[in-house]
């Protein structure tokens, strides 16, 4: 029998309380190269993250159902608080929040704005059998995009307003070569600028990022390189 499941490239923690919906998503994700770990509610998700950490396993992304026990019809009392808790501990972990709930049951705009402020993607999904739809959303999230499904796409303006690109093209050019482990001298040669200009730009980059992302640390080159790798796709700077 032909095996359609790809060798896993990435590991996902999927937080879903419905076995039927979990099974449907797992099949699609495994067919697209994801290894799927499972958590069933707001208490199990942090536990599964801690288990993965103790075992030295890298979680490449999370997908979280907004309608979880103990309040499955109220995202602001279930899925959203879980995401806020996780984001406090894992600032750069790609997260896709999703729901099958009808939009009339909760304030979509309010939830969407909170998720966007947390750098979390948000999608309405339906189990219609459309090939790879959820996997595509998740892959975009893993790459650094903050995405919205068509149902809430009109809220994209808030995403831009909440987190505009804090750097200009010159700053991004320096970060690109810094992330490739170039020295200041090598960066200066690549960009045809003085070594002192490189140092000045890096200092300004730290100031701008500290203002835009006050909870993150930008003390050393590794911090800056990690930020570049996380956000270059989101700001179309790859």
Total of DSSP H or I helical runs spanning 4+ residues? 10
Tell me the strand percentage band: 5-15%
Q: Which parts are unreliable, with pLDDT below 50 for 5 consecutive residues or more?
A: none
Q: Write down the secondary-structure element order.
A: EHEHEHEHEHHHHHH
Lateral arrangement of strands in the main beta sheet: 2-1-3-4-5
Question: Would you kindly provide a brief summary of this structure?
Answer:
The protein has 238 residues and is an alpha/beta fold. It contains ten helices and five strands.
Description:
By secondary structure, the protein is α/β, with parallel strands linked by helices. The chain folds into two domains: 10-162, Response regulator (Rossmann fold, 3-Layer(aba) Sandwich); 169-231, Orthogonal Bundle (Arc Repressor Mutant, subunit A), CATH 1.10.10. The chain is 46% helix and 11% strand. It contains ten helices and five strands; from the N terminus they run βαβαβαβαβαααααα. It has a five-stranded parallel β-sheet with strand order 2-1-3-4-5, sandwiched between helices. Helix 1 links the parallel strand 1 (10-15) and strand 2 (34-39). The longest helix has 18 residues, at 195-212. The radius of gyration is 20 Å and the shape is elongated. The mean pLDDT is 87.
């Amino acid at each position: 029998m032909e095996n359609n499941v790809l060798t896993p490239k990435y590991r996902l923690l999927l937080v879903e309380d419905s076995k039927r919906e979990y099974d449907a998503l797992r099949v699609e994700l495994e067919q697209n190269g994801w290894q799927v770990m499972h958590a069933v509610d707001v208490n199990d998700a942090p536990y599964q993250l801690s288990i993965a950490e103790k075992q030295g396993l890298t979680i490449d992304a999370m997908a979280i159902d907004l309608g979880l026990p103990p309040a499955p019809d109220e995202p602001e009392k279930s899925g959203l608080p879980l995401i806020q808790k996780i984001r406090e501990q894992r600032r750069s972990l790609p997260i896709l929040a999703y729901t099958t709930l009808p939009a009339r049951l909760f304030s979509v705009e309010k939830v969407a704005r909170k998720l966007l402020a947390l750098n979390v993607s948000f999608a309405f999904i339906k189990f219609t059998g459309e090939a790879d739809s959820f996997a595509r959303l998740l892959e975009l999230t893993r790459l650094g995009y903050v995405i919205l499904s068509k149902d809430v796409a009109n809220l994209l303006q808030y995403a831009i307003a909440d987190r505009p690109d804090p750097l200009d093209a010159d700053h991004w050019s320096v970060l690109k070569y810094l992330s490739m482990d170039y020295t200041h001298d090598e960066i200066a040669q690549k960009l045809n600028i003085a070594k002192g200009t490189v140092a000045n730009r890096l200092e300004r980059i730290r100031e701008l990022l500290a203002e835009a992302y006050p909870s993150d640390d930008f003390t050393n080159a590794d911090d800056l390189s990690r930020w570049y790798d996380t956000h270059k796709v989101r700001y179309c700077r790859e």
